[in-house]
What does this fold into?
Amino acid sequence: MEQYKIKLKGQIIESYKIEEIIWQGGTSTIYKGIPQDLNSQNPVAIKILNPYRNLKHQIDAFKKEYKILKNLSHSDIIKVFKLGKLNNLYYMIMEYVDGNNLRTILNKNIEISCPTILKILIRIGQAIEYIHSKKIVHNDIKPENILISKDFLNLKLIDFGFAKKLGFFRKLNYTGGTDKYIAPERKKGICDFKSDIYSYGIMIEELLSKYVIFEEFYPVINLAKSEQPEKRPSLKEIIEKLEKLYENWDN
Ligand SMILES: Nc1ncnc2c1ncn2[C@@H]1O[C@H](COP(=O)(O)OP(=O)(O)OP(=O)(O)O)[C@@H](O)[C@H]1O
Ligand SMILES: [Mg+2]
It folds into this structure.
């Protein structure tokens, strides 16, 4: 993999110059790209499928991720601009967020106020509500897949690598994702909107227990974590509870 890092620095993809690696993962590597076109100012993020992942099902999944994102339009969901191939590299170009993912914020104990945490959780819930309205299940809701700018104002839900458009059949033939956040039914190959609610519930628990008084949320979180999908509350219900807590916050 080291070889690819060296090869790509300074290289031009579309009209962007590869500046640095932002992330090196098992499936993909993400680079920051600087526009070479004088009319454009904004850097981009370029997600490249690691070449040793150039297997048909991985390439199909990469293309599907792009297609799903291309059809979504929401201020808190990452925008994609272009899908392409350069030699043996499959890439997608998307808007760049100068900040951290929520996992880094948690791990580095970055200072963040309680109302800000509540607002972040509300916005994540609303972004999930939006994708569900488009019949998409994200399937990988977790802090690593939420990007937040340094001033905490810009938030983006990312990584639709496991996302699925629900049709008549609700079977999944893969069970990717991070164990802690995966709803039990997903491990049996069932994919449903309620599985995202489980993951969202786990994430709310993680954030509220670290930053905010948590007791009033135990009942709703315990329901969101229910083994039985039908017992889980709706996103609307969870968001309303978070909003109440946010509005009543007095500092
Ligand atoms: N548009 C972006 N702007 C800035 N940073 C980004 C962007 N997209 C992704 N990143 C960074 O890269 C990380 C991984 O992104 P993403 O979740 O899309 O990759 P992944 O498919 O999970 O990678 P892998 O499966 O190989 O681990 C994010 O947590 C974030 O830190
Ligand atoms: Mg990810």
Remarks:
- The CA atoms of residues 42 and 181 lie 33 Å apart.
- The chain is about 35% helix and 20% strand.
- Helices lie at 2-8, 56-70, 102-107, 114-133, 193-211, 218-224, 235-247.
